[in-house]
Each structure stands twice: as structure tokens, then as C-alpha cells.
Design goal:
Layout lengths: L1 H13 L13 H8 L4 H36 L5 H13 L6 H26 L5 H34 L17 H23 L4
């Protein structure tokens, strides 16, 4: 009886079928599919999309904020930051005057995008909260950043001019701004715009 069963199994194996109770070699694709969690590719694409959206919103907020800041200064008839920074850096560094507009806008955009990145980090830290709580907390932080950046703007400007002019750290810094005038409100509009784009924007786009 045992010999008959053994002969039958050998015949099945010779025909390419596994013997009863013995599993054949696993198919490679089937094995890989078993080790992959269902929806892993979909989840990966989703996370990538969310991350890409945050980067896009950060850059949009930084550029839009820089233009908004400049437009407010133009509308109020005062000197603009790009003009002032460009002229000061070129004069202090002995560069060609034709470079002043380019230098001024590079500095202005660099600062605006950096501030937008700082706010993006804040939004990321608050991401685990519910949307109403996250939006409210982010708005409070935006107002605090507006106040803080207004205060440190004058000394930061003096350092930027000296460094870009190749003079190193300045011997004397402009005093901090303690007034709640136009510069403060311009900073408020800048950060509220960032709040609307980076904290509320994903919700409006259905991604938060």
C-alpha cells in the first residue's frame, strides 16, 4: 500500500504537480505580494502628494507675501525694502549700481521665503490637532511672529547689509523697532496671508 502511494506521488511530481500535503515552490510575484501591505503604494503616493503640496504652499506663501509687503510700501508712498536694501548693499560693498534692484529683490525674497518656511514648521508641528484648534493656534503664532519680526527687523537689516557688503559683523546695529506703526501692520498682513495659504489652504483644497 505504501509503495503504491509513493509511486503515485512520484508520478504527480513528474507531471509538475506537487505531492499531496507538500506545497510547491512559491511563485516570486505571489511571495512579494504577500509581504506588501494592502494599499502600500496608494498610501505612499498620498504621503508624497501631501508633502509636495506643503512645499508648494510654502513657496507660494513666501513669494506672495514678499509681493504683498512691497505693494503696501508702494501704496503708502514710502521707500520699499527691495530698493533700500539694494542701494545700501551696493553702496557699502562698492558694487556696480546697476545691481541694486537685483540685490534688493534677492534679499527681500530670501527673507520672505525664510519667514514662510518658519511658519510652515509651525503648521507642521500643529498638524496633529483638529482643524479648528490648529487654525486658531496657527493664527496666534502668526500674530506673535509679526510682532517679533517687526522688532528685530532694523538690527537684522544692518547685519544683512554689512555681511553682503563684505564688511562682516557691523560695529553698530540699528535699534529694535518698538512702535506698532505701518511696518508692524505690514508684517501682520504678511503672516496672516501665510496663515491663510499654509494653515487654511490645505483644508480648502480638501487635503487636511
Amino acid at each position: 500500500m505504501l509503495i503504491a502511494i509513493g509511486v503515485a506521488n512520484l508520478a504527480r511530481i513528474g507531471a509538475g504537480a506537487p505531492a499531496p500535503g507538500v506545497s510547491g515552490p512559491p511563485d516570486k510575484e505571489e511571495s512579494m505580494a504577500k509581504h506588501q501591505a494592502p494599499g502600500a503604494h496608494v498610501a505612499g503616493r498620498s504621503l508624497w502628494g501631501v508633502g509636495a503640496l506643503k512645499v508648494v504652499l510654502w513657496l507660494v506663501a513666501g513669494v506672495a507675501g514678499s509681493v504683498q509687503f512691497w505693494l503696501v510700501q508702494v501704496a503708502t508712498g514710502g521707500p520699499t525694502i527691495p530698493d533700500f536694501m539694494g542701494e545700501q548693499v551696493v553702496a557699502a560693498g562698492g558694487y556696480a549700481p546697476v545691481l541694486a534692484p537685483f540685490v534688493g529683490w534677492v534679499v527681500h525674497l530670501g527673507v520672505s521665503v525664510s519667514y514662510a518656511l518658519l511658519f510652515a514648521v509651525v503648521v507642521l508641528i500643529l498638524a496633529h490637532l483638529s482643524f479648528p484648534t490648529r487654525a486658531g493656534a496657527a493664527l496666534v503664532v502668526a500674530l506673535l511672529l509679526a510682532w517679533l519680526t517687526t522688532r528685530i527687523a532694523p538690527p537684522a537689516i544692518s547685519v544683512t547689509i554689512a555681511v553682503l557688503a563684505g564688511q562682516g559683523w557691523p560695529a553698530e546695529l540699528f535699534p529694535v523697532n518698538t512702535e506698532l506703526g505701518l511696518p508692524f501692520w505690514n508684517h501682520v498682513v504678511f503672516f496672516v496671508l501665510n496663515w491663510a495659504i499654509q494653515a487654511v489652504g490645505p483644508r480648502l483644497l480638501g487635503r487636511a
